[in-house]
């Protein structure tokens, strides 16, 4: 496990940054913020943003790039709208009124589907037609985090009280893990072990084997683990916390 040092920190947002995503096959990345803006950056020269949309009227809660059409990304806001956006030209191409207010994530590999969380419900939309294909319900608390498996066949949803794993094939919750006193905030499928889900809690990581329904708690941070990411290339998992640190695990 290593602790990363900050190399550069763009600070043009005027409020909390709510999400950050890299553009596929690029050094560019986009950030969403409570300051009602979306900004596009280049990690190779992050002293200033490349483009900015600053006239939105609601908090921008989450964003994601399309995995194949890397000129396209979408973002959701606190008014439950999803906007599809073009990088070049930097402009809105479509607005969906039936969206998400917490987080949006494109299905990996194909990008055919979009998962959007709003309150206690997660909706699955066909990206081209905007048609709702699934409505995943069952969380007792607000869903604040989404994560696809590497193949885009399973979706994990996180509330403070529990994590559920849903099958896109059947539309059913096939696995569930309760917090038991912890507070869950994030999750990611392990890049090397498909049955292992890594869950970020209030200072600790839960390593949950979904097939055997067994878990192990690993002390990790001094505060909430707000985000997790994985790298299939290295087999590593990164954790980002409100204690202002990022850690790498293998």
Q: Can you give a write-up of this model?
A:
With 250 residues, the protein is mainly beta. It has 2 domains: 12-131, Methylamine Dehydrogenase, Chain H; 138-249, Methylamine Dehydrogenase, Chain H (7 Propeller), CATH 2.130.10.10. The protein is 0% helix and 53% strand. The protein has no helices and 23 strands. It has strands at 2-3, 17-22, 28-33, 38-42, 51-53, 60-65, 72-77, 82-86, 91-96, 103-106, 113-118, 121-126, 132-137, 145-148, 154-158, 162-167, 173-178, 186-189, 196-200, 202-209, 214-231, 236-241, 246-249. The strands form 5 sheets. It has a 7-stranded antiparallel β-sheet with strand order 1-23-22-21-20-19-18, with no helix packed on it. It has a 4-stranded antiparallel β-sheet with strand order 2-3-4-5, with no helix packed on it. A hairpin with a 4-residue loop joins strand 8 (82-86) and strand 9. The chain is globular. GO terms for molecular function: transcription corepressor activity. WD repeats lie at residues 10-42, 136-176, 218-250. InterPro entries: LEUNIG-like (IPR044716), WD40/YVTN_repeat-like_dom_sf (IPR015943), WD40_PAC1 (IPR020472), WD40_repeat_dom_sf (IPR036322), WD40_rpt (IPR001680). Pfam families: WD40 (PF00400).
Radius of gyration: 17 Å
Structural classification? mainly beta
Annotation, overall tally of beta strands: 23
Name the helix and strand elements from N-terminus to C-terminus, one letter apiece: EEEEEEEEEEEEEEEEEEEEEEE
**The CATH topology of the largest domain, please?**
Methylamine Dehydrogenase, Chain H
CATH architect. name of the largest domain: 7 Propeller
Distance between the termini: 7 Å
């Amino acid at each position: 496990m290593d602790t990363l040092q900050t190399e550069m920190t763009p600070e043009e947002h005027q409020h909390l940054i709510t999400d950050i995503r890299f553009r596929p096959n690029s050094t560019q990345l986009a950030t969403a913020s409570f300051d009602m803006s979306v900004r596009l950056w280049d990690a190779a020269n992050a002293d200033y943003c490349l483009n900015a949309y600053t006239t939105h009227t609601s908090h921008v809660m989450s964003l994601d790039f399309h995995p194949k059409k890397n000129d396209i990304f979408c973002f959701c806001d606190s008014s439950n709208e999803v906007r599809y956006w073009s990088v070049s030209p930097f402009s809105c191409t479509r607005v969906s009124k039936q969206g998400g207010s917490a987080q949006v994530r494109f299905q990996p590999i194909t990008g055919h589907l979009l998962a959007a969380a709003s309150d206690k419900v997660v909706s699955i939309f066909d990206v081209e037609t905007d048609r709702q294909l699934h409505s995943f319900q069952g969380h007792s608390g607000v869903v604040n985090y989404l994560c696809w498996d590497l193949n885009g066949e399973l979706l994990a949803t996180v509330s403070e009280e529990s994590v559920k794993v849903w099958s896109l094939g059947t539309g059913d919750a096939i696995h569930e893990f309760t917090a038991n006193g912890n507070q869950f905030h994030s999750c990611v499928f392990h890049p090397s072990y498909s049955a292992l889900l890594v869950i970020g809690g209030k200072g600790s990581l839960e390593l949950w084997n979904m097939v055997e329904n067994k878990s192990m708690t690993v002390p990790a941070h001094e505060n909430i683990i707000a985000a997790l990411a994985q790298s299939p290339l290295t087999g590593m998992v990164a954790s980002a916390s409100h204690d202002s640190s990022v850690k790498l695990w293998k």
